[in-house]
Design brief:
single chain, mainly alpha, 72% helix
Length: 227
C-alpha cells in the first residue's frame, strides 16, 4: 500500500485519535495517586524504549538497517530524556522535555517525515505511536504543573543543542544522513520554506532563529506566572 499525504484523511484520522488519547491520558493522570503517576511516567518511558528496540530489530531482520537507523533525531534522543525524568526528575530534564521533546514531537506529528512508508505497515504505525507517546508523557505533567519550568533555565536546552548538534552534524556529513534535519528539511513542511527562502547557506541560521522564536512563545506563559 502507498504512503499518505500531509493532512490527508489518513493523517487527520491519526491526529484526531492521538489528540483524544492525550486528553484522556491527561485527565486520568490527574486522578492517579502520586505513586501511580510515577508508574505512568516509567511505563511510557519503557514503552518508548521497547518500541525503539522493536524498530531496530525490524530493520535488522528485514535487511533495512543502515546509517539512518540509530535514534539520532531529536525525538529519538527524547527516549533518554523521558527516562531520566521518570527516574531522576530535575530542572534540566523538565526544561528539555518542555523546550525540545514536546515541540519536536508535535511538529513531527503535524509534518511527518515518514509519509512514504506504506500505510499500515510497522514503520508507519511505529512512527505515529512513538511520537504520540512522547507527547503523552509531557502533556499530563504540564497539565498537573509537575514540571519545574523557569525561563532562566533555557540555557540548559541551549547547552544540550550546542553539545549534540555538532556531533549529529558530523555524523550526517560522514554517512550522508539528515538527522535533526540539519542538512535539509522534510519536503512540504514549513522548514522547506526556510530552505527555499534562505538557501542551504542560511538554512541553519534561519532554523536557529525559528527555535528561538518557538522558545519565546513557549515561555511567555512561564514568564507571566513569574517563574
Amino acid at each position: 500500500m502507498a504512503g499518505f499525504a500531509i493532512f490527508d484523511t489518513i493523517h487527520l484520522t491519526w491526529l484526531s485519535f492521538i489528540t483524544i488519547s492525550i486528553i484522556l491520558a491527561s485527565y486520568l493522570y490527574t486522578r492517579f495517586s502520586t505513586a501511580y503517576q510515577q508508574r505512568y511516567q516509567k511505563f511510557i518511558f519503557w514503552l518508548l524504549l521497547l518500541l525503539e528496540c522493536a524498530k531496530q530489530i525490524f530493520l535488522l531482520i528485514t535487511n533495512q538497517y543502515s546509517y539512518w537507523s540509530p535514534p539520532l533525531h531529536l525525538c529519538g534522543l527524547g527516549i533518554f530524556i523521558t527516562g531520566l525524568h521518570a527516574y531522576r526528575p530535575s530542572r534540566t530534564t523538565a526544561t528539555l522535555l518542555y523546550a525540545l521533546t514536546l515541540p519536536g514531537a508535535v511538529i513531527a506529528l503535524l509534518f511527518p517525515g515518514w509519509t512514504m512508508d506504506p500505510v499500515g505497515d510497522f514503520l508507519h504505525i511505529h512512527s505515529f505511536v512513538f511520537h504520540a507517546l512522547l507527547v503523552m508523557f509531557v502533556c499530563p505533567l504540564i497539565h498537573k504543573q509537575q514540571l519545574d519550568l523557569r525561563w532562566q533555565d533555557l540555557w540548559r536546552a541551549a547547552l544540550f543543542l550546542i553539545t549534540t548538534v555538532p556531533i549529529i552534524y558530523a555524523y550526517n556529513a560522514a554517512f550522508q544522513t539528515n538527522f535533526m534535519f540539519l542538512n535539509r528539511p522534510v519536503a512540504g513542511t514549513p522548514l522547506q520554506w526556510l530552505y527555499d527562502g534562505f538557501d542551504s547557506s542560511g538554512y541553519l541560521i534561519s532554523l536557529t532563529a525559528v527555535v528561538l522564536v518557538l522558545w519565546l512563545i513557549l515561555y511567555i506563559p512561564i514568564r507571566k506566572r513569574g517563574a
